[in-house]
TrEMBL record:
GO term, biological process aspect, one: regulation of cell shape
Protein name: Glutamate racemase
A GO molecular function held by the record: glutamate racemase activity
Active site residues per record: 76, 187
Coiled coil: none
Similarity comment text for this entry: Belongs to the aspartate/glutamate racemases family.
Length: 291
């Protein structure tokens, strides 16, 4: 019998959105230890250049690697779209997962033939998420919509649906008219306003790839043996960590057990070589690591 042990899983996002990914992992793997870094000083990443996103992603991962993580989960889809190869090159021995790895398997078993992707401008322009969807479902039509106004509102903690309304209408009405049967939430911030999104496309199935990714990793018991530990969560921020704490309290309070679903294989990204409530602590990001 393999000895049980707790993984130390690092995650990062430009701000609070990646907490939805953290919640998914805590829901499916509560026994492990999590270190989350929110780059709140530089949010959002979605309108930055690819070069800026790569630099900020490297700096964020440096914070996590300094805390001895065993596995990296890129909880920012903008970063996953443009920076993963750079991260793998810099940290060849660190297993890396992204929601990009889950988006294809997440839609493979749904019958809808009209699939939409709602994401940041940089993610849409990169095209990699849409390419994964087309590869997974060559029988389906795929449309991508950039939603640049949403992340800044979410990061500011805006709750009023009336503020989101005009933006959501402009992004989603064309998809409703088109008859989108599946809508992939292509930014980890969007599950925080999922109810408002769903209300505008009531006949469309919303998919959050984070749930599929977390469930898959939890099922890989040979690679990640279960631990008897109660687990922990550490929140780090480049700015005010109390912002993360407030969002985490809200997100974690909604953690529920979901029914398991079968879906395709998701693989770890690693550079080739030649040879549930959680205890929350707060840490300080190391000064001078961010550009």
């Amino acid at each position: 019998m393999k000895e049980a042990w707790a993984l130390r899983i690092g995650m990062y996002d430009s701000g609070v959105g990646g907490l939805t990914v953290l919640a998914a992992f805590v829901r499916h793997m509560p026994e492990h230890d999590y270190v989350y870094f929110g780059d709140t000083l530089h949010a959002p990443y979605g309108d930055r250049t690819a070069e800026e996103v790569r630099a900020l992603s490297l700096a964020a991962v440096k914070q996590l690697v300094a805390r001895d993580i065993d596995l990296l989960v890129v909880a920012c889809n903008t970063s996953a779209s443009v920076a993963v190869d750079t991260l793998v090159d810099h940290y060849p021995d660190l297993p890396v997962l992204t929601l990009l790895d889950a988006v294809g398997p997440a839609v493979q078993h749904f019958p809808g033939r009209k699939i939409a992707l709602l994401a940041t401008r940089r993610t849409v322009e990169a095209g990699v998420f849409e390419a994964r969807l087309r590869s997974a479902r060559p029988d389906a039509a795929v449309r991508s919509v950039a939603a640049p106004a949403l992340v800044p509102l979410i990061e500011r903690g805006v709750k009023d649906p009336a503020v989101y309304g005009p933006f959501l209408d402009s992004y989603l009405k064309p998809l409703a008219t088109w008859g989108a049967e599946v809508l992939v939430l292509g930014c980890t911030h969007y599950p925080l306003i999922a109810n408002q999104i769903q209300s505008r496309v009531p006949h469309t199935l919303l998919i959050d790839p984070a749930n599929h990714l977390a469930r898959h990793v939890a099922e890989k018991q040979d690679a990640f043996p279960a631990s008897s530990s109660s687990g922990s969560v550490t929140l780090l921020a480049s700015g005010d960590a109390t912002v993360l704490d407030a969002f985490w309290k809200s997100v974690s309070s909604q953690i529920q057990t979901e029914a398991s679903e079968e879906y395709g294989h998701i693989g770890l990204r690693r550079k080739p070589t030649t040879s549930g409530a959680k205890a929350v602590t707060h840490g300080s990001a190391t000064p001078g690591m961010h550009p």
